[in-house]
Amino acid sequence: MAERPTTNWRGDVAQEAAGLAAGTLRPDCAYMVDLFPDELLSATDAVLDAFEAELPALAEEDDEHVFAVVQRVVLALNAVHESHGQCAFETDEREQLCAYIDEALTEQGIDVAALTARRGLGRHELTDQWRDW
Question: Cβ atoms within 10 A of the Cβ of 98, count?
Fold first, then answer.
């Protein structure tokens, strides 16, 4: 399964905490806990849990169904972003989430490039029409 961005973000938080505990990182240089509070990580994981639950059936579905699943995950991530003051997902996080959605679909046998092309979109425009983050 595609690696969730939240796994990386949790790792960054843990690495920073270890640096603080070991004294190799000054407190004024620590920012990961502020960027990725547990509430944000948990809410994002809940959205990704729901998305992943829908994935196994997608290889058998038509484009409309696949796009509906993408729309649901993007709108749910919009809600997480909004509930965190519109600053939950910045450029790096946004790119990681989009790459994760693409990779997760690809692992289920969805040809994302062909899927988006049939709608006149580029591969990297898969989430654009719904994404606020």
Answer: 21
> How confident is the model at residue 19, as a pLDDT?
97
Cα first-last separation, the chain: 24
Please give the structure tokens belonging to residue 133: 């983050």
Task: Look at phi and psi of residue 124 and say left if phi exceeds 0, alpha if psi is from -120 to 50, else beta.
Answer: alpha
Q: b or e along 48-63 (b: 16 or more beta carbons within 10 Å of the residue's beta carbon)? A: beebbebbeebeeeee
Residue 103's pLDDT is: 98
Classify 131 as helix, strand or coil.
coil
Which burial class, exposed, middle or buried, applies to 38 when counting CB atoms under 10 A from its CB (0-12, 13-18, 19+)? exposed
pLDDT along the chain (133 residues), means of 10: 96 97 95 96 98 92 96 98 95 97 97 97 97 95
Distance between CA 111 and CA 93 in Å, rounded?
23
